[in-house]
Amino acid sequence: MYVQRPRMFLFMFWLTSSWIVGLLIPSVAAESTQKSIHESVVKKTEGGILLKTLSGKTLIPAPLLNTKVTMTISGLIARTTVSQQFSNPSDEWAEGVYVFPLPDQAAVDHLRMRIGERIIEGHIQEQAQAKKTYATAKAQGRQASLLEQERPNIFTASVANIPPHAPITVDIEYQEVVRYDQGRFSLRFPMVVGPRYIPGQPQDIQKVSSSQAGFGWALDTDQVPDASRITPPVQHPSQGLLNPIALRIHLAPGMLLQNIESPTHPISITKDETNSYQVSLQDESTYADRDFELIWTPRSHDTPQTSVFTEQHDGETFFFMQLMPPTTAASTKNTIPREVIFVIDTSGSMGGTSLTQAKAALQLALARLTSNHTFNIIQFHSVTHSLYSTARQASASRIHEARRYVNGLQATGGTEMLPALDRALTHLPHQEESPRLRQIIFITDGLVGNEEALFALLHRDLHDTRLFTVGIGSAPNGHLMRKAAQFGKGTFTYIGSTTDVQDTMNRLFLTLEHPALTDITIQSGDPTFVDILPNPLPDLYHGEPLTVAFRSTRLPTSITITGNLAGTHWETTQSLIDANPRNGIAVYWARQKIAQLMDQEKDKTLLRQSIWDIALKHHLVSRYTSLVAVDITPVRPEAQSLHTHPLTTNLPHGMQYEAVFGWPQTATPATTYVVLGIFIICFAWIWSRQHLAQR
Predict the structure, then answer these.
(1) CATH no. for residue 568?
(2) What does pTM read for this prediction?
(3) Is the N end or the C end of the chain the one with fewer CB atoms within 10 Å?
(4) CB within 8 Å of 556: residues ≥ 6 apart
């Protein structure tokens, strides 16, 4: 009897070992493949980056990239041209593929390819057709460029048949609306795509369509099927910075200003006789490793109350309006008891200054809690952990305990955001008679690839909870942060540096602690007055304007806006007769309409035709349409081969390379299997030894 048991456990030992190896090999292979993709950039020289050819045997200099950004800000509308010059330093014909960010609400509507003195205008096409047009031109040796949207804030520019030792310049134009918040205007220009955490199991490389696969360091997974297209190769900081950028802004605010500043970059400012300003970067050797932000503050008596603009386009009238909320909201403090759930990202990408900023912000928020509040803190990296099992009363002793908990937070592991958000949305009802307003304060850099899963969770479980996002770091995922706040009827706040924490959080506290104008409606007596965007209309907080776009076949004389202000009915009438004509209003409405369609939980294939129609009509890049420009004459000889190069990006400023790439970027369970297997083996060995000793 005792003789058979050790044999049985030896068999268990062999079986468990085989099981571990079988489970571990696919994970190791996936991580090895990711590593080989990530290390496609093999060497940096004074002439640029050397990349492997497809055969992996030859090193060829990759195209160099220089970017010039020109902005014209007129009132509330900003028009931007991004000029990307792809220079080929090699003796071979080259194709450059560059993944880069743009503002997530940018309406991208023009593409031009400049070759010497010639200018080739891009045309909007359905996405698959644009890819086909570009691929055909590339194969025929014609120079071509293609602009595709991967995410609302991530785009890919492809440039084919760049001649040896020659440049090709691609101009991309877009329009956006500047932000107004609590007495100041601001605009952000993103410069680098931060490395994103990619959850899920890697897909079989052989099954991924070659036309869909990208050149990123991450493999496509079941949760992020386009991961390879949103993870451009990243330069190690020890090898220096890439992609120099020049930026010039013509600011015509239409009002006298009290101050112009940039919290992210040193800037030079000159004023002309028309009260316009020329803004540029002080440092001519600026590189694309962090977002740029410009803030301008009007003199107090010039604070806008209402701005209404209109444009005629294809027989329709489009309107854009910003209306300031009632000033009584600023003086009426919200006395409703609140439940505040703080969610803080402690993943590896938050290492360094980002976590320092996040912890400082959370400490300031804890200091504002009173005995009228309940609260909890949830942190997440590869796992999720809560300070309490459920929200607790904000007593002095518990706040002290929470402060110690925050001080001990450290950055490590992956960014498993979904379980943390799910836990924050789990609401256990309280026994108090008075209702509590639930608010979630989500502090993160947002650098994940599975945004759609997060949005689906918010749609399903948010209910009456208000969600406020706080973006951390030099290049946060603005699309995720702004859209999550929109779904949660909250606000998106950005902290760019440790010196901004106090001021930025004070502004957020004004938002949290003062009543919102809720249940907003806009009505007109004209039945052709349709498509008010955003839909539904958001809540309004202190210092925030109501920004809407709408269209009509004829001009209404006025609209009526109603809402709920601190439990009382609020109403105002806005005349549209004196609306100022302004170009770009139709494009703005179209961009918002596409975003609204993409936000719907319906099968996107059912909405594809509607999105096509709007994007093609207004010449806009979208998830289903792309811009393509093709030269007529072939330039590359048929005998000459073409080498494709994914261009490398910088690591966002302040981020720690080893903290990001030192952990697996997909949620492979290899570590769990190994630990479990070792435990089983050790248990079997000890048990068998005991029984052998008994013999």
Answers:
(1) 2.60.40
(2) 0.88
(3) N
(4) 524, 525, 526, 529, 576
